[in-house]
Amino acid sequence: MELGDDASEVTVAEARAGRAKAFREETRARRMEIAREAQHRYDAKVSWGVHVGPGTGHGELWTHVAAPMMTRLRQPQRLVLDTLVDAGVARSRSDALAWCVRLVGQHEEDWLAELREAMQSVDDVRRKGPAA
Protein backbone atom coordinates (compact mmCIF):
# COMPACT_ATOMS: atom_id res chain seq x y z
CA MET A 1 0.00 0.00 0.00
CA GLU A 2 1.33 3.42 -0.97
CA LEU A 3 1.04 6.34 1.43
CA GLY A 4 0.30 9.77 0.09
CA ASP A 5 2.70 12.68 0.42
CA ASP A 6 0.40 14.13 3.06
CA ALA A 7 0.75 11.12 5.41
CA SER A 8 1.66 12.09 8.96
CA GLU A 9 4.86 10.92 10.65
CA VAL A 10 2.78 8.67 12.90
CA THR A 11 1.08 7.06 9.89
CA VAL A 12 4.42 6.49 8.16
CA ALA A 13 5.97 5.02 11.33
CA GLU A 14 2.99 2.68 11.81
CA ALA A 15 3.13 1.59 8.16
CA ARG A 16 6.86 0.82 8.45
CA ALA A 17 6.36 -1.12 11.67
CA GLY A 18 3.54 -3.08 10.04
CA ARG A 19 5.67 -3.88 7.00
CA ALA A 20 8.53 -5.05 9.23
CA LYS A 21 6.14 -7.32 11.13
CA ALA A 22 4.71 -8.73 7.89
CA PHE A 23 8.20 -9.34 6.50
CA ARG A 24 9.17 -11.14 9.70
CA GLU A 25 6.18 -13.48 9.44
CA GLU A 26 6.56 -14.04 5.68
CA THR A 27 10.24 -15.01 5.97
CA ARG A 28 10.16 -16.91 9.26
CA ALA A 29 10.49 -20.45 7.84
CA ARG A 30 13.35 -19.56 5.50
CA ARG A 31 15.19 -17.54 8.17
CA MET A 32 14.92 -20.43 10.63
CA GLU A 33 16.35 -22.80 8.03
CA ILE A 34 19.25 -20.46 7.30
CA ALA A 35 19.84 -19.92 11.02
CA ARG A 36 20.03 -23.66 11.73
CA GLU A 37 22.59 -24.13 8.97
CA ALA A 38 24.68 -21.12 10.00
CA GLN A 39 24.59 -21.97 13.70
CA HIS A 40 25.71 -25.51 12.94
CA ARG A 41 28.44 -24.36 10.56
CA TYR A 42 29.83 -21.44 12.60
CA ASP A 43 28.83 -22.58 16.11
CA ALA A 44 27.34 -19.16 16.82
CA LYS A 45 23.87 -17.71 17.22
CA VAL A 46 22.33 -15.86 14.28
CA SER A 47 20.50 -12.57 14.67
CA TRP A 48 18.04 -11.11 12.19
CA GLY A 49 16.88 -7.62 11.46
CA VAL A 50 15.25 -5.43 8.87
CA HIS A 51 15.28 -1.77 7.81
CA VAL A 52 12.13 -0.40 6.22
CA GLY A 53 12.29 2.92 4.42
CA PRO A 54 15.14 4.98 3.04
CA GLY A 55 17.70 6.71 5.21
CA THR A 56 16.45 6.84 8.78
CA GLY A 57 13.59 4.40 8.22
CA HIS A 58 12.24 1.90 10.70
CA GLY A 59 14.70 -0.73 11.91
CA GLU A 60 14.17 -3.82 14.05
CA LEU A 61 16.35 -6.64 15.34
CA TRP A 62 14.90 -10.06 16.13
CA THR A 63 16.31 -12.94 18.15
CA HIS A 64 19.42 -10.96 18.98
CA VAL A 65 21.51 -12.11 21.87
CA ALA A 66 22.14 -9.79 24.80
CA ALA A 67 25.60 -10.68 26.06
CA PRO A 68 26.60 -9.78 29.61
CA MET A 69 29.58 -7.48 29.77
CA MET A 70 31.76 -6.20 32.55
CA THR A 71 33.07 -2.65 32.62
CA ARG A 72 34.98 -0.48 35.06
CA LEU A 73 33.52 2.94 35.66
CA ARG A 74 34.77 5.73 37.85
CA GLN A 75 32.46 7.43 40.34
CA PRO A 76 31.37 10.30 38.00
CA GLN A 77 30.31 7.78 35.32
CA ARG A 78 28.46 5.66 37.87
CA LEU A 79 26.66 8.80 39.02
CA VAL A 80 25.41 9.31 35.45
CA LEU A 81 23.98 5.79 35.44
CA ASP A 82 22.52 6.24 38.93
CA THR A 83 20.81 9.46 37.83
CA LEU A 84 19.17 7.62 34.92
CA VAL A 85 18.00 4.90 37.31
CA ASP A 86 16.74 7.39 39.91
CA ALA A 87 14.86 9.32 37.20
CA GLY A 88 13.12 6.14 36.01
CA VAL A 89 14.80 6.20 32.59
CA ALA A 90 16.34 2.80 33.34
CA ARG A 91 15.63 0.00 35.82
CA SER A 92 19.26 -0.67 36.66
CA ARG A 93 22.78 0.51 35.98
CA SER A 94 23.01 -2.18 33.32
CA ASP A 95 19.86 -0.88 31.58
CA ALA A 96 21.15 2.69 31.92
CA LEU A 97 24.44 1.78 30.26
CA ALA A 98 22.63 -0.02 27.44
CA TRP A 99 20.41 3.08 27.02
CA CYS A 100 23.52 5.29 26.74
CA VAL A 101 25.09 3.00 24.15
CA ARG A 102 21.87 2.95 22.07
CA LEU A 103 21.67 6.74 22.25
CA VAL A 104 25.24 7.18 21.03
CA GLY A 105 24.59 4.64 18.26
CA GLN A 106 21.53 6.58 17.09
CA HIS A 107 23.11 10.03 17.19
CA GLU A 108 26.61 9.21 15.99
CA GLU A 109 25.76 6.75 13.19
CA ASP A 110 27.83 8.54 10.51
CA TRP A 111 30.85 8.81 12.79
CA LEU A 112 30.59 5.13 13.79
CA ALA A 113 30.31 4.11 10.11
CA GLU A 114 33.47 6.10 9.32
CA LEU A 115 35.23 4.51 12.29
CA ARG A 116 34.24 1.01 11.13
CA GLU A 117 35.58 1.78 7.65
CA ALA A 118 38.88 2.93 9.13
CA MET A 119 39.11 -0.24 11.22
CA GLN A 120 38.46 -2.33 8.11
CA SER A 121 41.39 -0.56 6.43
CA VAL A 122 43.58 -1.40 9.43
CA ASP A 123 42.51 -5.06 9.20
CA ASP A 124 43.33 -5.08 5.47
CA VAL A 125 46.82 -3.69 6.12
CA ARG A 126 47.41 -6.26 8.89
CA ARG A 127 46.44 -9.11 6.56
CA LYS A 128 48.94 -7.89 3.94
CA GLY A 129 51.77 -7.81 6.50
CA PRO A 130 54.19 -10.58 7.42
CA ALA A 131 52.69 -13.75 8.89
CA ALA A 132 52.66 -13.74 12.66
Q: What structural keywords apply?
A:
single chain; 132 residues; mainly alpha; 2 domains; 4 helices
- Structural class computed from helices and strand pairing: mainly alpha
Q: What about the largest sheet?
A: 2 strands, antiparallel
Strand order of the largest sheet: 1-2
Low-confidence stretches: none
The rounded Rg comes to 20 Å
Compute the separation of the termini in Å.
56 Å
Report helical residue fraction: 55-70%
Order of helical and strand elements? HEEHHH
User: What is the count of DSSP helices, taking H or I runs of 4+ residues?
Assistant: 4
Global shape: extended
Instruction: Provide the number of structural domains.
Output: 2
Q: Roughly what is the average pLDDT, rounded to an integer?
A: 85
Give the strand tally.
2
Q: How are the SSEs ordered, and which strands pair?
A:
Layout: H1 9-42, E1 48-52, E2 58-62, H2 75-86, H3 93-107, H4 109-128
Antiparallel strand pairs: 1-2
Structure description:
- By secondary structure, the protein is mainly alpha-helical.
- It folds into two domains: 1-65, no CATH class; 66-132, no CATH class.
- The chain is 61% helix and 8% strand.
- A hairpin with a 5-residue loop joins strand 1 (48-52) and strand 2.
